[in-house]
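Form 12-C: Joint structure prediction
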Amino acid sequence: MDESRGLRGQPRYQEMADLLIEEIAAGHYPVGSMMPTEHELCERFEVSRYTVREALRRLEEIGLIARRQGSGTIVQARDSEHGYVQSLSSLAQLLQYPAETRFSVSETRTLTADRATARFLRCRAGEERVCISGIRRIGATGKPICWTDVYLRPEYAGIARAIGKTRQPVYEMVEKTFGERIEQVEVELFASAVPEKFASALEVEPGTPAMTIIRRYTGHASRVFEVSASVHPQGRFTYSIAFSREWRPVSAG
Amino acid sequence: MDESRGLRGQPRYQEMADLLIEEIAAGHYPVGSMMPTEHELCERFEVSRYTVREALRRLEEIGLIARRQGSGTIVQARDSEHGYVQSLSSLAQLLQYPAETRFSVSETRTLTADRATARFLRCRAGEERVCISGIRRIGATGKPICWTDVYLRPEYAGIARAIGKTRQPVYEMVEKTFGERIEQVEVELFASAVPEKFASALEVEPGTPAMTIIRRYTGHASRVFEVSASVHPQGRFTYSIAFSREWRPVSAG
DNA sequence: TAGTGGTCTAGACCACTTC
DNA sequence: AAGTGGTCTAGACCACTAA
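Section 2 - Result
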């Protein structure tokens, strides 16, 4: 009876959501109009209300619909993201540095995670990791733009030798060399201060304002296989992201 | 039977979530440790699994816990280390702040752009702008998470009165009130220091490390109609962006 | 008053991790 | 094999909106 993991191995509500997204994009449900009621969707898809609501929750999360108790569900937008579309390369832009920057390794070491480190690395206390640290510069001689610590599972340590000798991001090397498949990437950005440890390497005073970017790469079975932390001192680096409105030849009704 | 709307008129899952958030903050469930299983929470609160899962969903949304199928639920943060965590599922959410934050205006003024300001605002020197400044907080009384300056073209100044009285983002108000159509949005993030001017309003020392976020909204004919600059002091705010593989259109294979 | 979405129950089977 | 979270069903009552 449960065909939730049908052809694509996706939950039923996700299939439903995908289909409804397509239909909204196709103009089947124009912006400003009402969606079918949950009851009607139950009948159409032959699923329970739980499944319908999980599907609609996805549409709501990406801003396509708004639900109003007592009133109904209204179509808010024809495309997700408030009409803005990230360019196809933006995920890569978010993850990697421009080609004209160079990374040079200054230290490689193996560590055993204590409790605090384990939390940071999303692993268990006692597990081992290889940590590759270094400086990223613009060109070969420019001012450093960040200090980076890359933490890898020991079985991927072989990659350490190639780092800095290629412009390929570490996660791509892991993907291609070991067949790891990235399921999710998480990026954190927050204000910080440059620690004494590598202040001189960055050619700034300790305590200088900085922006820290943490990236966590998750592979199969929610296994975090790479974590990197980059500290960018004030004035050396700006993160810039642009969105354009997607152009569509047909206006919504 | 259903006491979901008990004393506070809140859903049962929200009461549960609030309590669990308090308990995590109090150290009852230390970061890195496992939460009780869903089954145990059902028993403790005498609710069905649906209610437990709705509560845990809230905790997950704000980054306090991570759930792993087959393994359990782990405590990820105590909500104190990097301050308020905004979890984003898409880049476009960089544009707005969560509903539980409030903006209060502390100053409104008109300025004429000098050359440096004009560069920042992407306008010509000598042009006028209205600048609305204020503080954003979590809830009504929490610590400030940022100081924001919003620069608007004078013809849109009427919007100033509505700011802080609605949760609608400013750019949306401009879009709906004046029919402006956003063609592009640009977001910049970089390290900075808290200026003396509003350090006390943010309850920090001048010079404290901060993360500045600049958003530029471009309308018709590449005309920048709104620019905002937000300064987030260290420890008050973290951006967390997660990408799933699903983001890419998966070929039906 | 009828119908909507919001909340909730008490089950069930599944996918996954761990032992 | 046991236990976890993920998905799903078939009901129920509630708060709210609109006719």
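Section 3 - Comments
Residues 1-2, 4-5, 11-13, 47-51, 54, 68-72 of chain B lie near DNA strand C (CB under 10 Å from a C1'). The radius of gyration of chain B is 21 Å.
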